[in-house]
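Explain the record.
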Amino acid sequence: MTWLESRPPERIVGDGVVLQRAHADHVDGLVEAVRESLPELQRWMPWAIDDYGAAEAREWQQGCDDQWPTGGGFAYVILEGDRIVGTVGLINRLEPGWLEIGYWVRTPATGKRLARRATAALIEATRTHLPEVEGVAIHHAVGNDASRSVPIGLDFVYVGESEPTPDRPFQQVAEAVWRLPLL
């Protein structure tokens, strides 16, 4: 069980973006978005493998379904109309009171500030629906300037860098760490 008892809404609308709780109906669109974006994603995301397909998307989706009821995480697809243009989510892997935000945007959709707008909508939903959350954090690879623009544009505070550790096995490189208190 987690310290987090509240849950966010399954659909969030804000500043020209729609976030929808990730579900099985999104698998095909997710595979299409990932495969179209592999060259860029592979620079930063260890899960972005050459043969990424329906099995990997279903595995991710099942993990999302497993985490939602326990408060372990809340994953959303970012939609433009019916088209998946990325994902954003809250991950409960920091100290109690804090959630980490992760995001990525489909390559042809970059340059529209979608990650920033999706993150802002998610932060607002967190403030409104998750009263026990004290703040949110963003960790991104130190050299990823596109990811860096999101916390800067949303007034996060840079707190330093973290090196890969056994408690963050998914972290492959040094990460910049940003925090935004919500209380």
